[in-house]
Amino acid sequence: MSLDLLQSIWFILVFVLFTGYAILDGFDLGVGILHLFTTDEHQRRISINSIGPVWDGNEVWLVAAGGALFAAFPPVYATVFSAFYIPLMLLLASLITRAVAIEFRSKIASPPWKRTWDFAFFLGSLLATLLLGVAFGNILLGIPIDPDGNYTGSFLPLLNPYALLVGLLTLVTFTMHGGIYLAAKSDAPLRDRLHRILPTLYLAFLILYLAASAAYMYSSIFLFMSLFTSPLFYLLIAIFICSAASLHFLIRAARFRLAFLASSLAIASMLALAANSLYPYLVPSLTNLNYSLSASNSSSSHRTLSVMLTIALIGLPLVILYSFLVHRVFKGKVLLSEESY
How far is 272 from 237, CA to CA, in rounded Å? Predict the structure, then answer.
């Protein structure tokens, strides 16, 4: 297998892993964002226990994606972690906070104690979602990189309007995704309340996605224009339109299990469109497009990529199987017991 082909395969695999994380931990984060807006203790226990058996396994996808990026494209890993050092530390703190909140909330039967951890669960989920979206928005827009691949910017420019727009889009998307999942796992009155707010979240999702797409076309015309020559672009657009349209009718019909599948497909097609627009760049450079880090100029050696591909072909199906089995075992409505959170 040629080096060029291996580089392309690993470009795809890295995005597949991040897509898996967005779909699986995306609904975890969405449930956390909605958690503070539940009305009583019973609903909050339903909220936490809907993700209790799966949230830590879902975060494995982020670890796997980061590990794949480090091994397959070391310069990209180094540049991204240098550029986003403060946001990534905040992201880590947010993920730790929400994990601790899930485990500690039920340890003491005290309303102030539970309210504190409820807020920590909400805040950790909200901040993590925004940080992920803002970081991804900056990757799409491009960051200032010198000829040696070093980040030459600072923290505040990362909070630019386009990145904040993508952050807001991510927030609304994950909240909708989590709301659909929680509705599928709960009964009335929580399910009915979610059924009333999901159409609003869906409308906000569509508006923000169209706004982010228009802003991307304006801001990164040199990347966006190449999409129209790619047959894959039209296929992905068709998948997104079909999944987004079906999502509207499935939410209205309260078919939440099917709506969750449609929401997952919409997220996957959105990220696939982003990957298609970036290829072969992994980190475009705002300074000069020729300074960008791409699959060809920032990959590991042929031998490293080959060995990693063999490991991935064994490990990735196992991770997918594990995720499938866990969700299958804990399918159905949430049933609370003394052992529940």
Answer: 10
Contacts of 338 (CB under 8 A, 6+ apart): none
pLDDT 10s digits, 4-25? 999 999 999 999 999 999 999 9
Region class of 144: left (phi > 0), else alpha (psi between -120 and 50), else beta: beta
Any alpha helices (H) in the chain, and if so which ranges?
Answer: 3-35, 41-51, 55-58, 60-72, 74-83, 85-104, 111-141, 161-185, 190-219, 221-224, 231-252, 256-278, 302-329
Question: Quick check: helix, strand or coil at residue 293?
Answer: strand
| Per-domain residue ranges of the chain | 3-329
Separation between Cα atoms, residue 241 and residue 251, nearest integer Å:
16
Find tokens 């995005």 and name the residue.
Answer: 15
- Letter for the amino acid at 256? F
Output the pTM of the full model: 0.94
